[in-house]
Amino acid sequence: MCDTCGCNLTPGNKHLAFKPAAKGATAVSVLKGLLQKNDDQAGHNREHFDKRGILAINLMSSPGSGKTALLEATLTALKDEFTCAVIEGDLETENDAERIRAKGVQAHQIVTGTACHLDAHLVHDALHHMDLDGVDILFIENVGNLVCPASFDLGQHLNVTLLSVAEGDDKPAKYPVMFRAADAMLLTKTDLLAVLDDFDPAKAEAHLRDLANPAPVMRLSARKDLGMDAWLAWLRDQLAAQRARVAIGQSRRPAIQGDGMKYHSVSA
Amino acid sequence: MHELAVAQALVEQVDAVIDQHRAGSATAIRVRIGPLAGVVPELLATAFPLAAVGSRMEGAELEFVHAPIRVRCQTCGAETEAVMNRLICGACGDWHTQIISGDELLLESVELETIPSLTPES
Ligand SMILES: Nc1nc2c(ncn2[C@@H]2O[C@H](COP(=O)(O)OP(=O)(O)OP(=O)(O)O)[C@@H](O)[C@H]2O)c(=O)[nH]1
Ligand SMILES: [Mg+2]
Ligand SMILES: [Zn+2]
Ligand SMILES: [Zn+2]
Ligand SMILES: [Zn+2]
Ligand SMILES: [Zn+2]
After folding, report:
1. Domain holding A99: CATH number?
2. Least CB-packed of A107, A133, A144, A235 within 10 Å?
């Protein structure tokens, strides 16, 4: 493709391209994940959650797919059942955190400035500004972005990826890294399906399966209170599963994170 | 552009390797990267020199080893190549597969310039 970045190296020719170490130089093998530091911090965050029996969920989607609206409806529905807390990630403004606080729920806003994703260190800083005692579920609303949030483990137990019916049912095929990471995919704003009839929920699901992802797909409208029951039931199940894990000293990472390392560290 | 964040993480890691080996600087860095890592090599290559300014790897050559996408089928056991948005079994077509290569983002090796500690300063 181009000669400057070395991207035309292949496993077949790399031994030719990587010239032997010059005099006074040594080549050392490292084999460590590039994001190891973030992953270590994420593991530490997860310990904070597990120690308190908290279920942590990372919400990801394009900008405007309805993450905050889903949280508003969810928090209202679960008000008398669980104590929830929310971390909001946005490039600018406290707006989303204020929408959550208006529901009487603790929210901390992370303003990332130029960073288009949350990372484990930002989340850890946020945790120190929050009162986690008695919290059952912590929702982390990531920056609206279908590209990089999937690459950074935050210490969450589950990834939930939203896809609004206004976006096109082929999004999972266009953003495979993001949708592969989903432990659940929510098709949102289904009240608009009647007018946006070119969105085929079955196709969206088929694209998700093509990514070898068995995650449940739920269809809902937070604004019109449609399909919320299945989502709330899933949350209850996941919280029960988290409590069962904590009781036996286990934890859970989002399905794909760390998957690769397991194989590569032995084979590379 | 999260590649800048990844480049900064890379600089930190290489720095640690330089310390660990008591070397003077790094002259070449090799990263193994798969398409499913969500990091674009071209963008990382652009971001790296910015992240490396003033460090002991300024001017180091960054090389990529591109890892192919391979999946192992949980139904028939075959190991086949796949493309990014169709991670299905190339033998039987089932989608119950596991990625065995193609999602890595690894610092594979570093070429270090050792400090000529025995030569007196001139
Ligand atoms: N019709 C309809 N509109 C919705 C629904 N959910 C959200 N919206 C609208 O979509 C817009 C964006 O919703 P938000 O909840 O702010 O989306 P978000 O994903 O939090 O956006 P960012 O945080 O900016 O990424 C708002 O105008 C909402 O009113 C829904 O179920 N139906
Ligand atoms: Mg929002
Ligand atoms: Zn290139
Ligand atoms: Zn801590
Ligand atoms: Zn980013
Ligand atoms: Zn098969």
Report:
1. 3.40.50.300
2. A133
- In-domain check, residue A141: yes
pLDDT in tens, A170-207: 999 999 999 999 999 999 999 999 999 899 999 999 99
Does A24 reside within a domain?
no
**Inter-chain CB proximity B106 and A17 less than 8 Å:** no
Number of H helices, E strands in chain A: 10, 8
* Count of domains observed in chain A: 1
Pairing of strands A106-111, A137-141: unpaired
pTM of the entire structure? 0.89
Residues 6+ apart with CB under 8 A from A257: A39, A153, A181
**Could you tell me which residues are beta bridge partners of residue B112?**
A26, B26
Name the residue in chain B with its Cα closest to that of A34: B106
- Between the CA of B112 and the centroid of ligand 3 the distance, in Å, is 24
Cα(A85) to ligand 2 centroid in Å equals 15
Instruction: Indicate yes or no: CB of B37 within 8 angstroms of CB of A4.
Output: no
Vertex A185 angle, CA B3 and B75, to 5°: 95
| Within-domain flag for A265 | no
DSSP H helix total and E strand total for chain B: 2, 6
Q: Which atom of ligand 1 is nearest to the CA of A65?
A: 19
> Which of A9, A30, A41, A178 to mutate to test binding with chain B, by most B CBs within 10 Å of its CB?
A30
Residue by residue, pLDDT tens for chain A (268 residues) are 233 333 334 444 444 444 445 567 788 999 889 999 999 999 999 999 999 999 999 999 999 999 999 999 999 999 999 999 999 999 999 999 999 999 999 999 999 988 889 999 999 999 999 999 999 999 999 999 999 899 999 999 999 999 999 999 999 999 999 999 999 999 999 999 999 989 999 999 999 999 999 999 999 999 999 999 999 999 999 999 999 999 999 999 997 754 444 444 333 3
Domain range for A154 is 55-250
Residues B28, A18: C-beta atoms closer than 8 Å: yes
Interface membership of B114 toward A (CB under 8 Å): yes
Nearest CA to ligand 1 atom 29: A69
Q: CATH code for B3-67+102-114?
A: 3.30.2320.50
